[in-house]
Amino acid sequence: MGLLHEQQSLEPRTLTMHKGSMIKHGLDQVECETEGLFMIIAGTESTASAIRSALVHAMTSPLVYQKLKDEIHTAVREGKVSSPITFQEAKALPYLQAVIYESIRMRPPLIGYFPKVVPPGGETLLGYHLPAGTSIGTNMSAILSSTDIFGPDAGVFRPERFTELDEDSCKRMKRDVELAFGSGQWMCMGKTIAFMEINKSVFEIFRAFDIQLVEPFAPSTIATYGTFLESKMMAKVSKSDVS
């Protein structure tokens, strides 16, 4: 936050900088600091949580782990990917995408109901009148575990639910999962960067290493403070033969 205070003494032309832009649009010092804190939380730990979720879910599911490793090995052997892999190359690997989306579905990067305030004049939603000023939110955990959307086995980690669908149905199901990042004008600004980081990290970790959990039936201790924080996760790591 010290940088924000330092920028107050800079010349007006620095309004093009981050804090200057926020002040220009009506935010005060405290609001600027709050925005900065949100950027740190939303842009680091949430993405790290999504990466951990993909790794842990894959490692605790031997069939999923082997299928993902096989896809990575084939992509490398056939020269379909660079080193490091690009985002576009990663998006062309269907099982990698299925594992990532299913991991986000099982354990979204951030949890909470992300409240919005009903605008002046109120709103009507599904026949219910919402008075102006009402705080409303979304139960994302309930949506992502809905059997109506994801099938009767929605409580199970099964990436194949994406690969067994036709293209249009798969895209629709992925959009449902992406609601974890918000939608419309309130969509997370870092969504694309987050997906890029998750894709590249998961692929490169499994390309470089073979990983086994020491305690696969109790892989870690998890605490939840708006995101999932893990500790005591022990793993055996060895160099992969994928080159």
Summarize the structure.
The chain is mainly alpha-helical and 243 residues long. It is built from eleven helices and eight strands.
Order of helices and strands: HHHHHHEEEEHHHHHEEEE
Q: What fraction strand?
A: 5-15%
Tally of individual domains: 1
CATH class: Mainly Alpha
Portion in helices = 40-55%
Provide the structure class. mainly alpha
Mean pLDDT: 87
Keywords: Heme, Iron, Metal-binding, Monooxygenase, Oxidoreductase
Organism: Colletotrichum liriopes
Cofactor: heme
InterPro entries: Cyt_P450, Cyt_P450_E_grp-I, Cyt_P450_sf, Cytochrome_P450_monoxygenase
What does this molecule look like?
- The protein is mostly helical.
- The protein has a single domain (27-239), classed as Cytochrome P450 (Cytochrome p450, Orthogonal Bundle), CATH 1.10.630.
- It is built from eleven helices and eight strands.
- It has helices spanning 2-7, 18-24, 29-59, 62-77, 87-91, 94-106, 140-144, 147-150, 160-163, 167-178, 191-208, and strands spanning 116-117, 123-125, 128-130, 135-136, 209-213, 221-224, 228-231, 235-239.
- The longest helix is centred in the first third of the chain and has 31 residues, at 29-59.
- It is globular.
- Mean pLDDT is 87; it is low at 1-16.
